[in-house]
Amino acid sequence: MKLNPTSTSRPADFKVQYEWQAGSVPPPFHDEYTIRLGPDPSGEIIYSPDYPNHNPPVWRETFPFSEDDLTHLFGLIVEKRVLTRQWLPAKRRRVGGSQEWLDVTAEGTRVSIPSELEEQDAQAMRPVYDRIRALVPQDLWKSLEARRQTYQEGYVQRR
Question: Which of 4, 5, 58, 134 could form a cystine bridge with 84, CB 3.0-4.6 A?
Fold first, then answer.
């Protein structure tokens, strides 16, 4: 990668796509979402309140954040060596539980962080994932959770 691993100067094409999926639970208690950030200071969350094969609604919402937020996220990604570390999947796969993974683009290069990581790599990624989720406004999270609750209640009534 051309990127200087110690540089905190955010490339113009910097963007991330974070994916999260709940663990295996019976419908309608599964949920999953994608958060896209960059390259400009706008984000998108795509939220599904159930397994895709159940044809649930998919809610797309956009939200703003600051250039400083995006620069800070890039600095954290550099600090945690996300763009320069060799990401290998965990040797032992776990059963159940939620999954999360990340794709980062910077200076024309895309780096993918797998969902199953060795413990030390998973710990290194925790602050990055936490920061990405924190960029989604709390009011938006509350709105999505309320819609999810309504979906679950309707699911029970339909059965």
Answer: 5
